[in-house]
Specification:
The protein is an alpha/beta fold. Strands 4-11-10-9-8-7-6-5 form an eight-stranded parallel beta sheet. It has a three-stranded antiparallel beta sheet with strand order 1-12-13. A two-stranded antiparallel sheet has the order 2-3. The longest helix is centred in the C-terminal third of the chain and has 32 residues.
Length: 382
Amino acid sequence: MAFGDLDGHAAAGPLDMDDVERAAAMALPPEVWDFIAGGSGRELSLAANRAAFDGVFVRPRILNDVSACGTEATLLGRAARMPVAIGPVAYHRLVCPEGELATARAAKAAGVPFTVATLSSVPVEEVTAVGGSVWFQLYWLRDTGRTLDLVRRAQDAGCEAIVLTVDVPWMGRRLRDVRNGFALPDDVRAVHLGAGPSTAHRRGDGASAVAVHTAETFSRSLTWASVERLRESTRLPVVLKGVLAPEDARRAVEHGVDALVVSNHGGRQLDGAMTAVAALPDVVDAVGGACEILLDGGVRSGTDVLKALALGASGVLVGRAPIWGLAAGGEDGVRQVLELLHGELTDALGLAGCVGVADARRLETLVTSVGGSVRDSGGRSV
């Protein structure tokens, strides 16, 4: 499926992320599309993630020389072409035979970090061999020894950070997968968890095999003591992904965490969890600059990146959009997604009067609530 084939248009590439999403939906089997696109429960949080960005408005500044507007940023102490990283998504080989290798190559070409998942379908050593900046996303397993072995393996492979996901004691009830009886095909496996087939491949009526597998594998006893253990076990930056409460953010700083990802897991865990956009300002205030703060969930454009920066984020993670690109066009599709984000961010920065990313963090914001009231960046009703 070529992006230019959409709706009979002959465009050289996607004009916005909606084009990419449509191309991916057309390219994938329905149950695979549901696995990627779906959320938990009634998908309230999934929908709210997108609506939350639509409710944020920035106050542009004028008469700044933006002729050399730049998107460069620093993420976890490393230079990046823009304040964007590809977030962790399981099983890239579900949508493209090359899987995570194609995504990693595209991320390297775009100058942004790529996060390889515990549930990757390609080994971390092969991903880091591509080059570029690679982070490793960690699920805490029932076997702590295996968990710390994964940390050492990622560190030895050359990963630059450990991103511990803290909001998945078990997988949320994703009704699309349950209705489809979703299971992995035989040739797609969680290679970090063993070479052979698992319960994730055993299809059953009225159940998600992937959810059954993670319930067997993930620990339900992840605590702050686990974070301490991780901090003591690696020299790499430690990032906690799945933080929404300011109290948890403060405690993370006390435990030596280097960065936080404000996230509701893309609306795939607790349905009804508040959005990252809504939680971000309180988390920023609670941390007070003591660590980096990234936002994850609902990012679909460069303007969304600008809004996240204006609300106090250091940068964003994008998850579904690169997978859409991978499904629609392989490595080149992911590259087009990242180039689209870069172009849109450049456009948004310049039109907002920002010479660079640092200026975006000083923009004032107006946030409209579901009920229609408006709050400014200082939290005052206007």
